[in-house]
Predict the structure of 3-ketoacyl-ACP reductase.
Amino acid sequence: MTQLKGKVAIVTGSSRGIGAEIAYTLAAAGAKVVINYNGSKESAEEVAKNISDKGGNAVIIQADVSKASEAAQLFDQAMDHFGQVDILINNAGIMMNSLIKDVSDEDFTKMFDVNVKGVFNMLKQASTKLAENGSIVNFSSSTTRLMMPGYGIYSATKAAVEQMSRVFSKEIGERGINVNSILPGGTNTELFKEGKSDEIISKLASMSAFNRIGEPEDIAKIVLLLCSDEAKWMTGQNIGANGGTA
Ligand code: NAP
């Protein structure tokens, strides 16, 4: 198994869902982990406690990554606590589904603020503060490949993340840092399940080669691989993590 002993990772939005699972997986591989949350303090505390109960090392830090000042504080507090940051997982994200004609200005702005500006804010911090030879994984979505009605603005935010990642990989590569985007398909979390009937979930599951939706563990294992020395030559890529859905 990939070893991350001595490494420090920030996982944005790791109070719940895929981010929490990534925090567990990186901690199990030996990394010290910063659990970032925005509103879910109790869940973040529980994630940190579960890690320390297993002998790992985690700290929780509140920050709304869509705000530049809070993203800077998140990075600085992580460095104050652990001395360095080697791995940045830009997982925090939100999704509101509507046909483009029905999307409110407010929801458009909210999704771009968290999903795009949040990643941008953290990449800016990483450009000077992430340790040499580190790794960055940004979260896109397989919806950028599926053209599903109702996902227009969410997909647009994730397409922006993919393009930023590809360019940023060339801007930061001279420091030995690899940057990739991961594109999960439907994955068993609150974000995915909210507002979907069992019938819709079964239909989406049937689009994968394995006739099921993803579990957070499926995604976390790929994130671990992308942070490993073995994947260093992989950079600037947008990687589907969707059981063959798209
Ligand atoms: P989730 O269960 O809704 O969890 C979202 C996490 O993001 C929470 O920990 C939340 O923290 C955090 N967050 C939201 N806004 C934030 C902000 N402004 N600043 C900091 N943290 C913030 O979502 P998920 O399903 O695990 O999704 C994780 C990522 O995968 C997202 O980027 C999503 O777009 C992407 N994705 C998910 C799926 C899927 O099917 N689940 C598919 C493709 C891509 P608080 O609760 O503390 O606010």
